[in-house]
Amino acid sequence: MLVDSHCHLNYKGLIEEQDAVLARARESGVTAMLNISTRESEWSDIVATANREKDVWSSIGIHPHEADSHPDVDLAKLVKQADQERVVAIGETGLDYYYDHSDRERQKQSFRTHIHAARETGLPIIVHTRDAEDDTAAIMAEEMEQGAYTGVIHCFTASENFARKALNMGLYISISGIVTFKNAKDLQETAANLPGDRLLVETDAPFLAPVPHRGKTGEPAFVADTARFLAELRGEEYSELCDSTSRNFYRLFSKAKP
């Protein structure tokens, strides 16, 4: 088994040939994909893709870049939309201070709303964080004190210290193709030492194509290349890493069924 725990099958670059993209993923050994939403206008199409494809699951959420443009997406709306058979997660959500496409306070409000939705629905939250480690960790910890929830730090590129904080809160860490980049030495060191029972792999396709595909449009099939690199980095057999990360996926996203 091999799972792409985070991709955007309905984004430009993949949607135009989605059937072929899915076929290539399956040929590469990918047995499940989690199709992530980032804005409300995508929700129906993303869920429809999951309803149509038995190995695709979906999420409901608003990316921090989109927080300013979605003031009406409240707890009730997220909970209602998440109550669908093929929706297995809340997000992606979080904080992005690198681009600051949305006001930081609005991002924080939206992040907390998503955590509340995760807590209410029992679904895991998918967390995006970039240049916002301290605030992300603080909000997650404060919210954890109000009631337990679970989730994953997707496309992890943060510090080892942040990883430790997330793991101590019971969250998972997902590694993308960035780990294969030559300039990702710190990330490689952290990824090599992450606990195997909390590790996921992803593509974030159509972004972040791993070596040897850099410069190309990313797609779920490429998660195999990230998994091979990660297995070698950690001194594991490729098949073992595929199996363990797949088990972790189904443990975290328990509403999904293999």
Automatic annotation (TrEMBL):
The lineage of its organism: Bacteria, Pseudomonadati, Pseudomonadota, Alphaproteobacteria, Sphingomonadales. One of its GO terms (cellular component) is cytosol. A divalent metal cation 2 binds at residues 128, 154. A divalent metal cation 1 binds at residues 6, 8, 92, 204. This is TatD DNase family protein. InterPro entries: DNase_TatD-rel_CS, Metal_Hydrolase, TatD-like, TatD/YcfH-like. Pfam families: TatD_DNase. Keywords: Hydrolase, Metal-binding. One of its GO terms (molecular function) is metal ion binding. Belongs to the metallo-dependent hydrolases superfamily. TatD-type hydrolase family.
